[in-house]
Specification:
Blueprint: H1 2-14, H2 24-38, H3 44-47, H4 50-83, H5 88-103, H6 115-124, H7 148-157, E1 165-169, H8 175-183, E2 187-192, H9 195-207, E3 213-217, E4 230-233, H10 239-253, E5 259-262, H11 266-270, E6 276-278, E7 288-292
Parallel strand pairs: 1-2, 1-4, 2-3, 4-5
Antiparallel strand pairs: 5-7, 6-7
Helix pairs in contact: 1-4, 2-4, 2-6, 4-6, 7-8
C-alpha cells in the first residue's frame, strides 16, 4: 500500500492540469482525498516505515499548499473584479460550469455543499463573529448558509434586475444579499436578528465595495418591508412566527406584486397560501418561487 500511495502522490505532483484555474472541481476532489492522509490517516504499513511516512507527509503538505495557493490566487482575482464592479460575469460563469457538472452526473444533495461553495467562501471571505452570539428567540431556526448553487438558481428564477429590491428574511452572515448584489442589478437587504452576523456581513460588503447590499439588525416581524419586490426565506423561523411573517407579506402584496423564494421546510407552509401561486413544481430541498396572485 505504501508503494501505491507514493505512486498516487507522484501522479498528482506531475499533473500540470491541476494548476489550471478552471480545474477548481478537480482540485477540490484531490484536496478532499489528501486531507485524510494529511491529518494522520496514512495506511498501516506506511506507519511501519518512519522515513517513508515522514517523506510522504512532507510531499502531501507541499501538494496541499500548492493547490490551495492556486485557489487563493483565483479567489483574490475575482475579489478584485468585484471591487471594480465587474465580478458578476466571472461568478456566473462558475455557477453555469458547476450546473453543467451536476447535470453530467455529479450528484449533490439538496442541502449539502460542493466546490462552488468553497469558491464563494474564498471570494467573500466573511469573517467569523468576534463576539459571542446573542442566541435565538423562540421559534427561530439555527443559522445554516444557503448552498451557493441555490442562490444562483434563486436569482435566475426570480429574474432579479435593477428594478428589484431583494429582502432576505433571516440573512445570517449575508451570503444571499451579497451574491445577489454582485450578480444582479437588484438592491439587496438582509434582515437578521443576530447583531454579530450583521456586523460581519456589513464588513464584507464594505470590503467588496457593494453599496447595493445593506444589512439591518432586528426582528423581521417589525422590520420595514415596504421596499421589497422579492423576498427570500431559508426556513429562518417556524410556527406562529412564520405565520406572522407570511401575514405581513400578504399585506405587502395587497399593494403590489411580490415574489417569494423559499428553501427548506417552510416551503410546504408557503405553498398552502391561497394568495400565492407557485412557479412550476416545488421541492423542500430546492428553491421554490411563488408570486402573489
Amino acid at each position: 500500500m505504501s508503494r501505491a500511495l507514493q505512486d498516487i502522490i507522484s501522479e498528482l505532483e506531475q499533473d500540470r492540469s491541476l494548476s489550471e484555474p478552471d480545474r477548481l472541481r478537480e482540485r477540490s476532489e484531490v484536496l478532499d482525498s489528501l486531507e485524510t492522509w494529511r491529518h494522520g490517516s496514512l495506511p498501516h504499513d506506511v506507519h511501519a516505515e518512519a522515513a517513508v511516512e515522514a517523506g510522504l507527509r512532507h510531499r502531501i503538505e507541499a501538494l496541499c499548499a500548492a493547490l490551495e495557493s492556486i485557489d487563493g490566487q483565483l479567489c483574490r482575482s475575482i475579489r478584485q473584479d468585484i471591487r471594480n464592479g465587474s465580478g458578476a460575469h466571472r461568478l456566473l460563469e462558475w455557477a453555469r460550469a458547476a450546473a453543467v457538472g451536476r447535470d453530467a452526473g455529479a450528484e449533490v444533495r439538496g442541502d449539502s455543499y460542493d466546490h462552488l461553495d468553497e469558491l464563494i467562501s474564498g471570494v467573500l471571505q466573511i469573517d467569523e463573529p468576534e463576539v459571542p452570539l446573542a442566541g435565538l428567540a423562540a421559534e427561530m431556526v439555527f443559522y445554516q448558509p444557503t448552498p451557493a448553487r441555490h442562490i444562483f438558481d434563486m436569482a435566475a428564477r426570480t429574474a432579479l434586475d435593477e428594478r428589484d429590491v431583494l429582502i432576505d428574511l433571516g440573512s445570517g452572515l449575508g451570503q444571499v444579499p451579497l451574491l445577489a448584489a454582485i450578480c444582479t442589478g437588484a438592491r439587496c437587504i438582509g434582515i437578521e436578528w443576530e447583531a454579530a452576523y450583521v456586523e460581519c456581513a456589513r464588513r464584507c460588503a464594505h470590503a467588496l465595495n457593494l453599496d447595493r447590499a445593506t444589512f439591518v439588525q432586528g426582528d423581521v416581524r417589525e422590520a420595514d418591508l415596504s421596499a421589497g419586490t422579492a423576498f427570500y426565506l431559508y426556513t429562518p423561523f417556524k410556527g406562529t412566527m412564520l405565520r406572522e411573517v407570511l401575514d405581513r407579506l400578504k399585506a405587502e402584496a395587497a399593494g403590489r406584486e411580490i415574489r417569494i423564494c423559499t428553501l427548506g421546510p417552510c416551503t410546504a407552509t408557503v405553498a398552502q397560501e391561497k394568495w400565492l401561486q407557485v412557479a412550476g413544481s416545488w421541492e423542500i430541498h430546492r428553491p421554490a418561487v411563488f408570486r402573489s396572485a
